[in-house]
């Protein structure tokens, strides 16, 4: 079946080709299908990520490719008349049955993002001419690996599976339904683990010679002790008389897709091994002469079916077997040609099975020619279009128009683009002839296409043969009838059910005689498709009209959609960053479009997104723009600037995610990024050059608006700067992307300094954010960064200077802009100096008595030709003229360049050099903006929302007031002892502060201050005082020095109240404390709502608390070798009944697999959200959970002193209000492997209640 790999794993919703499942910093809602983004865990399964890793390692050393002489590839896959694939379209996991002379193919509906149905069946009486029709059941989201059996009672029984790893059943009086579920309550026929150590999936029935029915099933049977399930069905066909396991020691490499049949007294179990997504997928078999439930031995000549040497028969597997007389045929799926991305565009093929004299199955010779007719040809008339001359509106790459007339279900005509513009193909029949019927096989049989067919005698004058431009019927083939004389037939496809679907066809067939196929009516009806057209440049955002420091509550869109982006909560701001004016996001801000996302970006539609981005530090998940809000596979559209090895560039949920190449340094440098998608290939360009590309199909489900700066529906947010962003609903060409990169204007600001970015204290270097780059270095002493009259400033005493460490040419027009403060009457001091300036500092800027003391001033000096103008606070102060010119290689100083010239004594908050002379209108605007920013960050006196208090002998918490939802305020806390400052925090966005490293039984004082986005800063808040006296705490500690087997003896005599691991729905192999360590060990356990639950030792706690522990060891740590999905750490849990999936818990865990490292799990009544820090084996081993009311802080530490919140912390859980919680240590494996976690120095601290 295969999709278990990508969808049903409890811990990893999907894989990326053979790069494995994405388990990276994602949020996923268990009630829905997998999303991108964050790790999500659907009970549906627990199939383990490690399984994929282990299997991939094995596959690297085993190449299951047939030699070319065995693959019969003398006939290429493009040869006209090929009979493989046997049906047109993407279908997988085929079961073929023959009932009453009619062949039926029951198969997974593939190529739609995850086997999403609808349920359908193909019928034929000759095995060549097939018709598809809907079935009424199932109507579930997924429809995987169906099978139908004709019971001894004359009823037909349909079985299929879902990613919940269960098999369901229904019955009917016909092979095509209508179907009635076997259990009215929808209960599964085969629940997961009905047979121990057999994961349920891919059920297939077998009728023995005595009339008894058996079923085989299973997936991921590669683990030690695992294998394939088999059961003897009772006559009711929904329960079992007995069950057993066929172990993988006999059915070697058993993975999925079992099929049982009997020949000449020998039972054959065929099954698939390897990855269904790639070339390793193959068919193997085992034989038994004993019976269908035991006695199996691994077959000779395995694998019997595998990828061909030329790769055109690629990943064959998940087969059924059809017996016609003494002949046996293997019906299997393989990947389409050319191979689509992800491996989920599979097609059904058939070849002959051959046995040797001893009954061994010989290697199958896979062909493109197929097996042909197995019955009388139902259309024994010539196809007038076969291999005739064709022309088309266009074609994409190698998808030639000739493929539409080659009677080959493995070749496709596809137009050049997937736009809303109609596509057409014209067939020249060669002569005027009668045309009575036209059969069209569109690419997707389960979606409708809108089209019309015209005919002509001369290719010039056209008449309508069939007008289906309003069609909403789906199926295959589409049949249109008439009775005309024509030489030319023209098919024009005007629309598709799915947005962005290519208007492609497998075959068009034209007949002049005979009966036509019946078009079955639809059971599944789709809504009318909305109409849309591509408009080109939809969004165009740039910073030309924005001023540095400006809060961006609204960002005007200059694209065709118009409108604007508005702040969604906190607003970003404009600043100069590394030479570009940009809009800055700190992970706290986002913007949302005031206009809706157009339909031209839905589904598989094409697009281009282009942006200039900068990030000081590389983040794993760093989303910039999103226009979808869906958890389903391939349905998301988030584009970012992150290092995640799967979805760093584009996040679509699943194998279609796209990353930047690993050697790209994202941090500390501006890059132009362009991501294009043409409906087939998604490409990433960096700085005009191709960086990565992948083949894929998307099913984007639109959000209402665009989100800029965050992923919709998740906490992931952008940290960095954006200088420009464009979105097109067309794919730009490679050369167009290169032109965009080459035609970027340089910012006309060569120097830009802003003191608000500097740390307090002596200043050594001040980075120039202007286009000239470089840094200003301190000379003749160090200026000091300090608060001056309510602003963070660089303070000079008149002796110190700062000089740019690179030459700056100011020979043309330019302007100097500075914001300054002086406390005393200024003399003729040099504020800005060029080394070529004369004694009067003609090319620099002096502080003059014109500027009043005791207040901030905004001074601008412009140089235009020989005219020099000086402005103070927007008012023209003087106009002078000079015939001198500055040097072309000046050194630029803040302060004096010469000891003979007095330096500036005062404070500077900002300084800029513009490479042109500012106009008076600009000067007025700049000054006005500057003046509006001169105010206190807050309007009220500072106060504590939460007074400082000790929450443990080493930790204190507090929270500043004076906060608003929209403000971009930052907070700095100072710790004092007896009024003397001893430490200071960094500026932080959160008003909540945790002070660490305190000493027990000490007294501390705290004050805080606030700054805003413009560098305005408050004074200190009132002092708050705490004591860390140990007498005020209840501390429960266990250093695990006392040997105790908690699993056998329970928790009596310890600090613990109870343990989970022994009893109903729970399991553990070890819960033992000894020698300073607690070891928790288990096998096949979970903490996702599924039994059995892993070990958990806990204390019942009510009220606020802090719990800490060191995870001293986990399985595989010594070798840095992943041991399955081992998960161990701290847990907080409500006392709920086990196994109800109504868990209310929070976990701070260690999960080394998939580079996760430290993992936060937030599980609430079926919704399981997880975030992580991508630290892998470099995880922080000290874990902490703090409860403060309904807020839970999930933190980690490298040194047990400095604590850092995990992504997603704090977590708000009002459902746990006033509840007594189980707080303690847990472990589980999320899979059949055995693993452990070891812990040291647990402690739980609560403030005593007064």
From TrEMBL:
CDD domains: GH43_F5-8_typeC-like. The record marks 202 as: Important for catalytic activity, responsible for pKa modulation of the active site Glu and correct orientation of both the proton donor and substrate. InterPro entries: ConA-like_dom_sf, FA58C, Galactose-bd-like_sf, Glyco_hydro_43, Glyco_hydro_beta-prop_sf, Glycosyl_Hydrlase_43_Enz, LamG-like. Signal peptide: none annotated. GO terms for biological process: xylan catabolic process. Residues 369-513 form the F5/8 type C domain. The chain crosses the membrane at residues 36-66. The keyword Membrane applies. Keywords: Carbohydrate metabolism, Disulfide bond, Glycosidase, Hydrolase, Membrane, Polysaccharide degradation, Signal, Transmembrane, Transmembrane helix, Xylan degradation. The keyword Cell membrane does not apply. GO terms for molecular function: hydrolase activity, hydrolyzing O-glycosyl compounds. Belongs to the glycosyl hydrolase 43 family. This is Coagulation factor 5/8 type domain protein. It comes from Mucilaginibacter paludis DSM 18603.
